[in-house]
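Can't paste images in this forum, so I'm doing it all in text. The chain is below; anyone willing to post the predicted structure tokens underneath?
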Amino acid sequence: MSDIVTSAGTVRVLSREGSFADLAARINALAARGPASVGLSGGSTPKAFYAWAVQTKALSAASIERIDWHVSDERCVPLASDDSNFGHAARGMLDALGAPSTRRFPWPVELAPDAAAAAYEAAWAKRSPTRAFDLCVLGLGDDSHIASLWPQCPLIGQQTGPRFAATEWPGRGWRLTITEAGLAQCAAIVVLVGGAGKASALREIAHGAFVPTLRPGQVLRAHASRVTWLADQPAAALL
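Text version of the structure:
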């Protein structure tokens, strides 16, 4: 393991299993201190984490009992859909580990996108007016997107306002996502990054000219002290 300090946070270079173990340890540490909230992510790497967590039993009993499970962004599809981020978390990990329904907080995708975002924001305001996730887990796209903040997304640059919002991603449909205002209220942010295909994006986020409308992951520079990138060697090769 090695750590590389960058303008966008600390990049921790690990094997895939090492990254998964690091993430599980963070979740367990949160649960050991009491009830907490975790916003999971979508994509192939989180799905692999779910399978690993079930197989290895790496998450403690306290984590299953005390963690409120969310996803940091979601597609506007039913939970049963193979495109649902929370659906993947439920089927891949939460069901197998016996996470109680009272600890599961999917986005209300049965509503229209703007109404779903408003309802999710209202629920957070009632439950936690000044803090978003205790741990927000994100992935990184090869186009530098994080959550559903995509290149040229109109939400980029809106550092105040709702912590959660709806956005229509051209060609990919409506998404529900944490915003920059929401990221600012997360106690800790972890980004899972794997593979050589992400190396250029990670380099530009960490070292490139600051143009977050083109490289959305650069919004994390404002929160660098709370951001850890769990990257494998191919992903970190250009740093």
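Residues 41 and 229 are 14 Å apart (CA to CA). The domain at 26-192 is CATH 3.40.50.1360 (Rossmann fold).
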